[in-house]
Amino acid sequence: MDALYTAVATATHGREGRAVSSDGKIDLALGLPVEMGGNGQGTNPEQLFAAGYAACFGSALGLVGRAAKVNVSDAAVTAEVGIGKQGEGFGLKVTLRVELPDTVDEETGRKLVEQAHQVCPYSNATRGNIEVNLVIE
Fold this sequence. Notes:
CATH class of the largest domain: Alpha Beta
Distance between the termini: 34 Å
Largest sheet: 3 strands, antiparallel
Oligomer: single chain
Low-confidence stretches: none
Number of domains: 2
């Protein structure tokens, strides 16, 4: 694969440090969520992953919608990223909640969401590695 773009970010001090992108557009404190014993003062990797996956999936949905000549520009994607114990380490699971415009019928919407799941880079990266559930709302 020839990369069209490469994002670069550096994190220091793990989950209780700081994350900074090479262009300075991201510069934020990281912190453990309260549910994992932290004080919840900073963002965490799961929130960042959820934001990236939701945005990427929304773009993929727009791409397949345009190809099918179906307007999904008002769709919203919410990514829920869970973390938990998995064997000796930790694992992730994702639920993608896709809210489609009322003008898209259920069958067409299901097809477009499935197609988006096939072309989305995040979906392709996670396929076979973590559980990803698609929910159309």
